Amino acid sequence: MDNLRGQSAIITGAAQGLGYAIAKAYVHEGMRVALMDIRGDLLETVASEFTAAGGDVLPITVDLSDAAQTQTAVEAALGQYGPPRALIHNAALLITRSMREITLDQWQTEINIILQAAFILSKAVWQPMIDAGGGSIVYLSSGSGYKGFIEEVAYNPGKHGIEGLMKCLALEGKPFNIAVNCATPGAPINTPMSDTNYSEEQKQHWVDPALLTPAFVYLAKQDGSGLSGHRVAARASGKWDAVDLL
Ligand SMILES: NC(=O)c1ccc[n+]([C@@H]2O[C@H](COP(=O)([O-])OP(=O)(O)OC[C@H]3O[C@@H](n4cnc5c(N)ncnc54)[C@H](O)[C@@H]3O)[C@@H](O)[C@H]2O)c1
To answer: Is residue 180 part of a domain?
Structure first.
């Protein structure tokens, strides 16, 4: 697919950070975008900004750690815009805690936002994408998707998990013309998550997440005949590197 104008997308975690930057890029491409986030206050402001710029967006306030809310949210998006050309599951929560500190509830919250929501959202769009002739699904991964980091007892296995789901669905999606990939920020990005977790030294090198968005425009154009089963590192240069994980 060359032109995204008039196509629709679902983006989670769209109220701020990288998700906001991707949403802005998609609105600029002429896409209609369902914006999901737990921060309803920020989401309304963002939706007003995009609408004022001529965009067609639907803000959906949802706690993606909750299965029923996630299902309701994706049904609202499908009801408004039909089968999405692209599903970008970008929302995540990273709270560093040791194994001694973390509770089961805390562990499940982070895992559910990252992995359970990826499953529920993907399952909800799967058949509509097949019926529409294809589509593109992207999960935001991280270095935590393939390396270990201390005190990421939930985030780390959550990110490993979505890489596994991605590989499985990329294989299943190919004959249905659905591309499934993971993406990572290929540069330190200036976002609220980074603000909480980066050292002062790392913050000296962080970049505006808007610089990473060309990779996400490219990914939205993919289908089963294009790039699938890859981890794509979105670079601040506007380019990207893709590693085949299949
Ligand atoms: N910041 C980095 O350097 C970095 C590095 C590697 C990967 N990532 C990944 O990139 C993605 C975006 O990161 P970011 O830095 O923009 O994060 P961020 O924390 O700045 O933004 C994440 C968004 O997700 C939303 N969210 C959190 N919990 C939610 C819930 N329960 N329901 C709905 N929405 C919820 C937040 O409100 C926020 O708007 C994440 O998947 C993250 O893991 C980020």
So the answer is: yes
Report the catalytic residues: 155
Q: List CB contacts of 172: < 8 A, sequence separation 6 or more.
A: none
Q: Is residue 131 included in any domain, yes or no?
A: yes
Segment 161-175 mean pLDDT: 98
- Residue 69 placed within a domain: yes
Q: Could you read off the pLDDT of 94-103 as tens digits, one per residue?
A: 999 999 999 9
Of 197, 217, 208, the C-alpha closest to 236 is: 208
Sign of torsion, CA 191 92 71 233? positive
Ligand 1 center from residue 29 Cα (angstroms): 23
DSSP secondary structure letter of residue 152: B
176-198 pLDDT tens trace: 999 999 999 999 999 999 999 99
Question: What is the tally of structural domains in the chain?
Answer: 1
> Please, are residues 236 and 187 in contact by the beta-carbon 8 Å criterion?
yes
Distance 210 CA to ligand 1 centre (A): 14
Measure CA of the first residue to CA of the last residue in the chain; give whole Å: 23
pLDDT digit string (tens) for 24-34? Answer: 999 999 999 99
**pTM summary value:** 0.98
